[in-house]
Design a protein that fits this description.
- By secondary structure, the chain is an all-beta fold.
- 0% of the residues lie in helices and 61% in strands.
- Strands 2-1-4-3 form a four-stranded antiparallel β-sheet, with no helix packed on it.
- Bound molecules: zinc ion.
- The site of zinc ion has 8 residues, from loops.
Length: 49
């Protein structure tokens, strides 16, 4: 079963991306470097519930 997660910029809090992650990865909080148009740079994006 897959779960939908939202990735939010750790710098400004904007929710820029959504992702589907496998339940096997549940428990680990994702942290992915992605481009934030609000910050206009690449920042760490964290999974939100
Ligand atoms: Zn940002």
């Amino acid at each position: 079963m897959r779960k939908k997660s939202v990735l939010a910029c750790s710098a400004c809090g904007s929710r820029n991306y959504s992702t589907m992650k496998n339940s096997s990865a549940a428990g680990d909080r994702l942290e992915i470097k992605k481009f934030c148009k609000t910050c206009n740079s690449h920042t760490a994006h964290l999974e939100t519930k």
